[in-house]
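Trying the structure run again after the queue cleared.
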Amino acid sequence: MRRCLAAVAAMVCLCATPSSAQGPPSLASTVSASSGEASPERPLAAQAAPTHQHPATGTPWQWGVEANVFAGYNYQYRKFTDFDEVESQNWLMTQLSKTLSTVSHLRLDAMLSFEAFTLKDIGSPQVFQTGETFNGAPLIDYQHPHDLFMNLGGEYSRSIGASTLVLQGWLVGPAPIGPPVFMHRPSAAENPQAPLSHHNMDATHITPGVVAVGIERAGFMLEAGAFHGREPDENRLDLDTAALDSYSVRVSWADGPWALQVSGADLKTPETTSPYDATRVTASLSYFRGDASRSLAWLAAFGQNREVFGNLEAYLFETNLRAVKNAYYLRAESVDKDILDAGFHPIGTEHTHRESQVGALTAGYVRDIAAPSWGTFGIGGDVTGYIVPDNLKESYGSPVSFHVFLRYRGRAGAAHLHSAARQ
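Done. Tokens:
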């Protein structure tokens, strides 16, 4: 509990300068036109078609800091053993940006998470969640803590006639595959938990080593990237470095409140428990309309991991409705899990995994209770029910999950000039 309170206090102090009082801030709830990830250029209330408009040469450096903290109680009811924890999910985003000329712009980003200190080493209890490892074994029923360094890199963009060329380099950052990661989606802005489909769609938001290039024109964007395909290791405090051995392509389109993306990636041995490569394909359609006081956002997405042991598919729909101080959110998922056959498989072991199609439905509510000039505090909670397949009923019964939490969101710094739209 003390670790959670310390994380909240630290982030509040970093953002304790005047900012808007209500609604998601411009940085933590925005998406870069080139990466599909968090970017300080696109507030929730401005989801227009991608534009790259640069003011006159010689503008000063612009800076921004934003924080998002959930701190609360997590209770997971299931057959045989219940799990509960006082914990905090959190992230801190910083940016420096500068317009270099009338046609070029530079942005430097850093994103941190203190979950290595505010969650247990094994992570946050979550029924049916999978992905990454703990003590060398596959994580099951836990969402792993995020690395201290989630993003560290930058982007250079240059207008060329009616098109814009975008170059990216990340020591650690988002590979161009999938929809924006859940923590930056307007449709998931109030939900503290990762989707069960996270590792089928947007898990490459923390990728060690990324080089990407994109070309944008009239709302359409084509991106290609090279990166290291292995998921982060269990040391949450270091920077993983390795060869660029995986590749991806993403095609996206945005117009007004609508955004669409289709993407695919060849991943080199993405899991430490398997020596085999995988292919991931994703598609998503999203919508946002409104402003900081009233808004509606939703996302529908599909993801598939094609592995030597079989294809694992995931379907996701989530929505967030804001009405002044009240926010209502919903998430529905159907995800293939190979829980029964998770574990290390040496080369030559190529059997089909038993699949378990699990379903989850989450309904939640958040009420803003205080809005000083340096951020917004809200109190909320949610409940999740599950559809359990026959081959897992003996182990899980009829599980239910509950969360009650305090949410802080705040920002400091100047307004951002570079405008884009990719949900």
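Residues 17-51, 415-423 have pLDDT under 50 and may be disordered. Worth checking whether this holds up in the mutant runs.
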